[in-house]
Description:
Blueprint: E1 7-10, E2 13-17, E3 28-31, H1 34-42, H2 49-66, H3 72-87, H4 94-113, H5 117-147, E4 153-157, H6 164-167, H7 173-182, E5 186-192, H8 199-211, E6 215-218, H9 223-228, E7 232-237, E8 241-243, E9 248-251, H10 254-263, E10 268-271, E11 277-278, H11 295-298, E12 299-300, E13 303-304, E14 316-319, E15 326-329, E16 332-334, H12 338-346
Parallel strand pairs: 4-5, 4-7, 5-6, 7-10, 8-11, 10-15
Antiparallel strand pairs: 1-2, 2-3, 8-9, 9-14, 12-13, 15-16
Amino acid sequence: MYVAQPIAWTDQGVVMLDQRRLPADEINYTYTDYREVAKAIRDMVVRGAPAIGVAAAMGVALGVQKSRARNVEELKTEFAAICETLAKTRPTAVDLFWALERMKARFAELTRATREMEQIRRALVEEAKLVHAEKKDTDDAIGRYGAEYMPKEGQVMTQCNAGALATAGIGTALGVIRVAYEQGRKIHVLVPETRPYLQGARLTAWELHRGGIPLTLITDNMVGHFLKSGKVGAIVTGADRIAANGDTANKIGTYQIAVLAKENNVPFYIAAPISTLDLSIASGEQIPIEERSAAEVTHIQGVRIAPDVPAAHPAFDVTPNRYIAAIFTERGVAKAPYTESLRKFAEEIPAKVAG
Length: 355
Ligand code: MRU
């Protein structure tokens, strides 16, 4: 089955599929400067929490590879500036900060062990490639755990795009759907278009269609109508940051879907890797919500659809844990009370630094 490739490390640089242009055009860019990688993250050439993490790790490796530092001390100063630039791109998806922390830890380890610049450069490229490669295994495991919770037959709803484009593996929420479909479950996916950036219409519809999985595209204001029909067996979305108590930030619109799911007795699930957990914050109230440009609301792909009036664009919202039936991770399925179940799964990794 077709799996999109949003990002790759090559000898020429970091290659990214421009997700702003999908589905009309499939254009790849090759970035040779870490500042370009940072801009690509900010401008949404690459998006989706795990894929942003991969991009940040590759950005660090690229920055170090291209550095003109003459010794390890100079490199340390430059390394800090590279990480700082990449950290300032998007504030909500914690995978970005997870990836930067991981690259920092590797850099510290290397600079303690050697003064050989070439060795440090090579090792950081390997680490970024590893971050990328691990996403594939992670998504496969999330898919296997989550598929058990999908209906044998019926409709499944998602939100935004948590597919291969968003993770560099098979996807988290769409990975669950894909595995369930490959197991022979007769799933039909309802895809809300996900205004204002249209990740549902442009990206999820494209991925499912390419993968041969049946879908129906709906507008965001049809969600309640379809959930009330009694035909939707489950909802599964991705996440950008999950607090210690299970409160989950995901694409704007997810919260209202979760509330409507509860009203209509449809189980609402989150699918996310351990790297999306932020156990350093107790609840969703502490999750920083990215505010994007109002022009993304007043315009669609450059075409004005509203008068020149103020418009708001919070890019994410937080779904309180009480609406979440389970969280599928690569280490198993977490259920309430999440403070205990998530901590148990995360035990092996250090707590994350909030961005
Ligand atoms: O603004 P985006 O497109 O980066 O937002 C993406 C989402 O909200 C996804 O659902 C989330 O990052 C999970 S991707 C596996």
